[in-house]
Automatic annotation (TrEMBL):
This protein's record includes keyword Cytoplasm: no
Organism name: Zooshikella harenae
Annotated NCBIfam families: IV_pilin_GFxxxE
Transmembrane segments: 12-33
Protein name as annotated: PilW family protein
Record InterPro entries: N_methyl_site, PilW
Keywords: Membrane, Transmembrane, Transmembrane helix
Domain of life: Bacteria
Length: 261
């Protein structure tokens, strides 16, 4: 008598193998998705940090030089343009520190005689050795991406040096506070916004606050409402899936006489 040997798999064994295979595939997919999400989030955070560093470096460089002029010329310049006579409203840009931009961010108009005869974009055309330049920093948007913009105003010739240019993407909000001294010394007594500066000659330092993203229209985090407060901005509510961080720094104006922050 001969026994029939089993050939192949039974239906039950095949179903069990398929189920186990599906579990393995699902696990691999889950690991892949988690790794991909982590990679995107890490990349976004790195870009946010890079954008913030570039923006703060650019602003700090000019703020330190505010009010500079060649000592041989004997001219004392204001640190910032706050009067329409220095930086009139034209070409849809109010070139004045007293203004706010379309994003309700502060505008920073830094005045000095540049050593290299260039504006904040690097333009040299039309800038002579003795010209006083006002670098206007503000936030604007293009294609849904907010950026730190700059444009140079030639106060000597009363003309724009060139067209506006974005410097750093992902800068969504900029708030400025000014460190002012009292009448008896140079020690900074308080930091106030532009509306509370009574005497601009008493400004000794500038505190900058930035709300920074990776500069992409979509992010890598859960979509929900997040709240931010940038210096004196008040509560800012934004609903999307974009990861943002707040960065602040304080810069002493080198051409002031203060040794204190």
């Amino acid at each position: 008598m001969y026994l029939n040997k089993q050939k192949g798999l039974s239906l039950i064994e095949l179903m069990i193998a398929l189920v186990l295979g599906l579990f393995l595939v699902a696990g691999v997919i889950q690991i892949f998705l988690g790794t991909s999400q982590t990679y995107r989030l890490t990349g976004d955070i790195a870009r946010v940090q890079e954008n913030a560093r570039f923006a703060l470096d650019i602003l700090a460089r000019d703020i330190r030089m505010a009010g500079y002029s060649d000592p041989d010329k004997g001219e004392i310049l204001p640190f910032f343009a706050v009067a329409s006579a220095d930086c009139p409203n034209s070409d849809d840009n109010n070139c004045s520190t007293n203004a706010v931009d379309a994003n309700n961010s502060d505008i920073l108009a830094i005045m000095f005689d540049p050593i290299n005869d260039t504006d904040c974009i690097g333009n040299t055309s039309g800038i002579d050795e003795d010209d006083v330049i006002i670098n206007l920093y503000y936030i604007d948007e293009e294609d849904g991406i907010a950026s730190l913009y700059c444009r140079g105003w030639n106060r000597t010739d009363n003309s724009w040096v060139g067209a506006q240019q974005p410097l750093v993407d992902g800068i969504e909000r900029m708030q400025i506070l000014y460190g002012v001294t009292n009448t008896s010394g140079d020690a900074i007594q308080k930091y106030v916004n532009k509306d509370d500066v009574d005497d601009w000659t008493k400004v000794r330092a500038v505190r900058v606050g930035l709300l920074v993203s990776a500069g992409s229209p979509s992010g890598s985090v859960e979509r929900k409402t997040r709240s931010y407060t940038v210096l004196d901005s008040g509560k800012i509510d934004i609903t999307d899936n974009v990861n943002r961080y707040i960065y602040t720094t304080t810069i002493v104006i080198n051409n002031s006489s203060s040794d204190y922050i």
